[in-house]
Design a protein that fits this description.
Blueprint (H helix, E strand, L loop, with lengths): L1 H13 L4 H15 L3 H9 L3 H19 L13 H7 L4 H10 L4 H15 L11 H11 L1
Helix pairs in contact: 1-2, 1-4, 2-4, 4-7, 6-7
């Protein structure tokens, strides 16, 4: 089972999966196994350019959500988002190396900003995407 989970995470990170899809997968695997750390370590250890790019996208997404205080595990109630917050800064060297190899990659440069703000205990330099007016519009449309 563990090998299957590792393979699924590798395919998700190196493929065209959106960060939210990877988050759901990590959350589900952590819930099934009762621990998150080995799966974060697995993501960090995946080699190659596709894994580097996937990790940059994931780091940006997670760090931004943490800065907006919007990162939570949807249905794994025992999950501690603080583990993700502690793990993300350890990925800064890999994100920085990717940014150096791809200087025009905005996601990589923004991920570095988000990681630095997260490490410093700062706030997001970006506005939260859903203001109260937008939130009310979306909730009204949802019924």
């Amino acid at each position: 089972m563990e090998r299957a989970f590792r393979a699924l995470l590798a395919l998700a990170l190196t493929g065209d999966r959106l960060p939210g899809d990877i988050t759901g997968l990590v959350e589900g695997i952590a819930h099934a196994t009762g621990e998150l750390e080995p799966w974060l370590d697995h993501l960090a250890a995946l080699p190659g350019p596709a894994a580097d790019a996937g990790l940059v996208r994931l780091a940006f997404d997670w760090a931004t959500d943490l800065l907006w205080e919007d990162f939570a595990f949807t249905w794994w109630y025992d999950g501690d988002p603080g583990l993700v917050a502690a793990w993300l800064p350890t990925q800064r060297p890999r994100v920085a190396a990717f940014a150096a190899r791809h200087p025009r990659c905005k996601t990589a440069s923004d991920a570095l900003i988000a990681l630095d703000r997260l490490r410093a205990g700062g706030h997001s330099p970006w506005s939260y995407p859903y203001g109260m007016r937008e939130y009310l519009r979306l909730t009204a449309a949802a019924g």
